[in-house]
Write a structure and sequence with these properties.
- By secondary structure, this protein is α/β, with parallel strands linked by helices.
- Helices cover 38% and strands 21% of the residues.
- The protein has nine helices and eleven strands.
- The strands form two sheets. A six-stranded mixed β-sheet has the order 1-6-5-2-3-4.
- Helix 3 crosses helix 9, helix 4 runs parallel beside helix 6 and helix 7 packs across helix 8.
- The longest helix has 23 residues.
- The N and C termini lie close together (8 Å).
Length: 285
């Protein structure tokens, strides 16, 4: 379990400004996300910018986009909290909070009953146990291999010459049960090429790929312990094939966030509100 010292960097020393809004920023491996909330804890605007790699420029673009969408500028922002891969690089952030805490808090805001959060992003997957107050109590993370992540799906879609946005629906049309045995993205791509050479349909191959993702997630869930209800967040949550495969593997029905990529940034904005109100809002066990 992450400690409170690990979860929140309290050393920036910035004062709360007079603005009526707060800003949460999530610098992911492949996307930058920003969320503005008002003092009534309502989402005012959000922005998602696609990256090639963690990028300060993309984060600034996401921030500029969300400010423009809300009709605001930085003078209207009372506090900024950053999370994600590059969170410590951003001087404009007043504080930083880990992804685990932010995803738990954002998911709880959207779905207070949630007890397990499955987040699959561009380069990592994580499963988070959440208590009734939205605090993370335990988590497991696959952060050293891209297998089963958004990047994994991008590579496989390219190998099959199928648009990334189409692979989820195509996987649901699988008729023959195939197996992708490798957990390595490079080796899995080799297996896919071999299956194509053997004459298997793209639908069947995609079915196998999504099943392999579900199997890896089930392994993470087993380390945390499955508690319902379950919510799925992250960019891969937009892939209906991945959602259905994970539901089948776990034997549950999952809630999918309406805008699954912004949940971390939303949690960061909620922490910003807590800091503005003079409390950390973090009760780790």
């Amino acid at each position: 379990m992450e400690s409170s010292q690990d979860a929140i960097n309290m050393d920036k020393g910035h004062d709360v400004r007079e603005g009526a809004y707060v800003l949460g920023v999530d610098s992911g491996s492949l996307t930058a996300k920003a969320v503005i909330m008002n003092r009534d804890r309502e989402i005012v605007a959000h922005s998602v910018v696609q990256l090639e790699i963690v990028s300060l420029e993309a984060v600034k673009e996401a921030v500029n986009n969300v400010l423009s969408s809300a009709g605001l500028d930085m003078s209207d922002i009372a506090y900024v909290v950053a999370t994600g891969y590059g969170r410590r690089r951003y001087d404009f952030a007043d504080k930083t909070v880990t992804e685990i805490s932010c995803h738990a808090k954002g998911a709880h805001y959207l779905f207070p009953e949630v007890r397990t959060v499955i987040d699959i992003g561009g380069q990592d997957s994580k499963v988070i146990a959440v208590d009734e107050e939205g605090n993370p109590t335990h988590f497991a993370m696959n952060d050293r291999c891209a297998a089963g992540t958004g990047r994994f799906l991008e590579v496989m879609a390219s190998a099959l010459r199928v648009p990334l946005e189409a692979i989820g629906e195509m996987s649901l049309k699988a008729r023959q049960k195939l197996t992708i045995s490798s957990i390595c993205t490079v080796f899995a791509e080799t297996e896919v090429i071999s299956l194509v050479a053997e004459g298997h349909s793209k639908e069947d191959i995609l079915g196998a790929l999504h099943a392999s993702i579900a199997s890896r997630i089930a392994g993470l869930v087993a380390r945390v312990g499955l508690r319902e209800p379950v919510m799925m967040t992250g960019g891969v949550a937009k892939n209906v094939g991945a959602v259905r495969a994970i539901e089948r593997e776990l034997g549950v029905s999952m809630t999918v966030a309406k805008d699954p990529q912004i949940v971390g940034a939303l949690g960061a904005a909620l922490f910003a509100l807590d800091f503005v109100e003079g409390m950390s809002g973090l009760k780790l066990r």
